[in-house]
Amino acid sequence: MSDSGFEESAVRLLPWAGPEGKPCYVIGDGTGRVSRLADETERVQLGMAGDLLGHAAELLAERGLSHGELHFLARCLAESLRDVSRVAESRGARLAE
Q: Domain coordinates of the chain in residue numbers?
């Protein structure tokens, strides 16, 4: 608790972007509905990233991929990396508090 008698609040980067790709944040103690939704979203994003890496390894081992398939795979990997990077940034900031 702070000197004012209120719980300390922290700013958390959320694992999704707002309009125009701008970062979204929540202020709170980490126990609210938005924080719980963010926790679940992070779990899903990290799980999907792991699944995508496995799928990418299988596809790349085939060596018969078309340009379009490689392009699609690269786009999916880039999106996943963006999500995982945002999760890492958010969690790293919370560790520093």
A: 10-95
